[in-house]
Amino acid sequence: MIMQNDDLVKACRILDLSPENLNLKSLKEKYWKLLKIYRYESMAAIPLINDFAQEEINSFLSQLEEAYRFLLAYCQGSRQNDHQADSRQLTNPLKELRQLKGIDLKELSEKSGISQLQLQKLEAEQYDQLPPLVYLKLFLKKIAPILGVSSEKLITYYEKSHQLWIEKNKKSPAEKTT
């Protein structure tokens, strides 16, 4: 049986899920269903826009995204104190957020001033083909407002991901001499 804590119950309530029957498939299905309903370009959202301020809808969408990320990490077995999923277990947040917002690489490139090729490499986490981390942080600061997320969260993810990449690709002294 799943141990229920306040955060788990709250996140499940936002997505109208039961903590006892929580699984990855139902989580994703419910998330996408709610997202389609509440996104501003949805026909289903037109009556809501008349009844609620756009700020309220945006607030709910933010809560929805936060609850989804928490439950996704929970379903994948990673419950960290800050409720952020470990970069080894989650898909790339940049690509996920971009697709969620319905923005293609060309549009993101035009809005951010970062080449499509660099964005592709960043999404693929090909750190050996990207500029140093200090420049990646500048890229992420440009990208975050376009995607409507905190630049700090994106930067934190990429710092961890970059560190994991370094550790994975670090050669032992014996390998360096050969």
Identify the notable features of this structure and list them briefly:
single chain, 178 residues, mainly alpha, Helix Hairpins, 434 Repressor (Amino-terminal Domain), 65% helix
Biggest β-sheet description: none
Structural class: mainly alpha
Q: What sequence of helices (H) and strands (E) makes up the elements? A: HHHHHHHHHH
Number of strands: 0
The total of helices stands at 10
Strand content: under 5%
Describe the structure.
This protein has 178 residues and is mostly helical. It folds into two domains: 1-88, Helix Hairpins; 91-178, 434 Repressor (Amino-terminal Domain) (Orthogonal Bundle), CATH 1.10.260.40. Helices cover 65% and strands 0% of the residues. Helix 1 packs across helix 4, helix 2 packs antiparallel against helix 4 (54-75) and helix 8 (133-147) runs antiparallel to helix 9. The longest helix has 22 residues, at 54-75. The chain is globular.
Short description, anyone?
It contains 10 helices and no strands. With 178 residues, it is an all-alpha fold.
Please outline the helices and strands.
Blueprint lengths: L5 H9 L9 H15 L7 H6 L2 H22 L17 H8 L4 H8 L3 H8 L9 H15 L3 H19 L3 H5 L1
Helix pairs in contact: 1-4, 2-4, 8-9
